[in-house]
Specification:
Layout (H helix, E strand, L loop, with lengths): L4 E2 L1 E6 L2 E5 L7 H12 L4 E7 L4 E6 L15 E2 L12 H16 L6 H13 L4 H20 L15 H4 L1
Length: 168
């Protein structure tokens, strides 16, 4: 059985439909396969896919039937609510941008949920603020070093400490 991927319609106007498949963000092969499966449909004029934004833009003829997107071979789950509001709420958009920024800054090691859990635990455990700042600095420094490691010849890439364990 094929895995279905939750999708939602971002907007729909005459002749144009945009859907998002957030769980497949950055999966270029998935979006190219989806495009290939849909492009031959007689009511579809053009399809543009963007794996970076998890977006599929469908230009279609009048009378395009949304049930085409519910075809099990497309692996899309549009759920019951077929159309979301014309514009996503600002708060949801801000959270998405913040999550993406944190993941980009940390090289994918930390997301917004992890960050918020760490803050909550720091508050509950009454840790001094500098410990949280130290954790943030460490994550950012590790991401920076990892991203630059290939550019600096001779820089060790292992994650094990180089000091005491090598001497033992």
């Amino acid at each position: 059985m094929q895995q279905r991927h939750r999708a939602h319609i971002v907007h729909r106007i005459a002749g144009r439909l945009r859907i998002k498949v957030p769980g497949r963000r950055h999966d270029a092969q998935y979006f190219q396969n989806l495009r290939r499966r849909l492009i031959d449909h007689p009511e579809i004029v053009d399809i543009k896919v963007n794996p970076c934004t998890a977006s599929v833009l469908i230009n279609h003829r009048p009378g395009f039937d949304l049930d085409v997107l519910r075809n099990p071979f497309l692996e899309l789950d549009l759920g019951r609510a077929t159309v979301r509001s014309q514009a996503r709420p600002d708060a949801e958009r801000t959270v998405d941008r913040l999550d993406t920024s944190i993941q980009r800054l940390t090289g994918g090691k930390v997301d917004l949920a992890t960050f918020l859990v760490k803050i909550a635990l720091s508050v509950v455990m009454r840790q001094p603020p500098f410990q949280l700042a130290e954790w943030i600095a460490e994550v950012l420094l590790r991401a920076f070093i990892t991203s630059k490691a290939a550019l600096i010849p001779g820089l060790p890439t292992s994650r094990e400490p180089q000091g005491l364990s090598a001497a033992a």
